[in-house]
Design a protein that fits this description.
The protein is an alpha+beta fold and 426 residues long. 47% of the residues lie in helices and 10% in strands. Strand 2 and strand 3 form a beta hairpin. The chain is elongated.
Length: 426
Amino acid sequence: MGKSEKNVTIEPGIVKLPSGKYKVTLDYGRDEVTGKQKKTHKTVDTLKEARALKGSNAKDKGINKNTGVTGKVPFSKAVADYNAFYESGWSASYTVNKHNQEKRMLAYFGDKDVKTINTLDIEKFFQYCRQPNEQFPHGLSNNTIQKYKTHLSGIWKFMLKAKNVYGVTENQVSEAEVGEIHDYQVQTFTAEQLSTLLSYITHCEKDHSTFAMVGLCGLAGFRRGELCGLQWRDIDWDNKIIDIQRQRAQIGSKVLVKVPKMGKDDGQTREERKQRYVALPDTLAYLLKAVKQQQEEFMEQEVQPEDFVYRTKLNIARGELPRPSKIDKRFRELVERCNKVQANKELAPLPVIRLHDLRHSYISICLNGDVNPLTVSANCGHNTKVNYLSTSTKRYWHDDGDRTEIVDFIDSTFKDTNMTILDLSE
């Protein structure tokens, strides 16, 4: 064998082979049981790869020396430990939300050793979340990915409290970038545009569940979950108020009945549970009574107090409740049908907005109409103790549940809307 064919030591731990490749000696320290050094070798193509591999091995040895952790700790085990420690203090809906997020985390990281997951890996995970795939057909929004980051950061903080168990030495999530964020630009209907949609549904929509969808969100400021959670017993026709006690919220594939947004499931008072009273103008009552009548025709019996207000004809036929996640699409399709009628009349189309934008529209119409902002806030479930208010107002103003001003304003605003419900049964 010629000299050119001998192994050449480039530096301690790296040898160049006659083939031109590089052999790296990887030292995993001394086995605690046998006392022998644990070494192995790996061959790579370039010196750059060899040095990177050697540096990674040295970093692992440093972690092992500082933490005492020499074995692999799978990400799946860290998640299981995190849940076992904290889950008893979580509400049912929060638990479902956490587990739903962990499905994507486990699909991506699986049993990868937590010591080897770095900030770049976390950022690649966020990119993975944005892209639809066979297992998860819908990519995640910016807002949802921010929640995933908070969840992952919590897992890393948990592991850092027990470095000798998991071997992590820093929170790899804290510096991870979630990617470019584009804030959604809210669009709203004017009172005239909402009047156009109300007129359309009463003249053209055979399924009166659209009356509840547009009426409750556009004329009362309901959120989607509150729309799905409203029962007939919550409506006080005589006093012209609706009692918002619950929402039906969808988290992943599960639908839960819980208190309104920001409320505590175990709250002892209405304020803690974020329950509130919403104005019931005659305009909305007219639509809801039509919904009730059609439901009774579909079921061939009277609706019961515990029956839900928003149910489509198909839902009733199948004996099921609507899934909240499907309602946004249904609203979009409704606006598109309305715009076809507008086009046939050579009239301007309505902007194709989100269902939640109906709530924004309602609030804007009320505030632009000089309705008391505190009453509007209380009606819509917002915090009335905001910083721009005077100390006396923040401290001493309390919602008395009177919604007369809003009732009168909405009825006067939409008094000329053509909402004669036509018989479309044929």
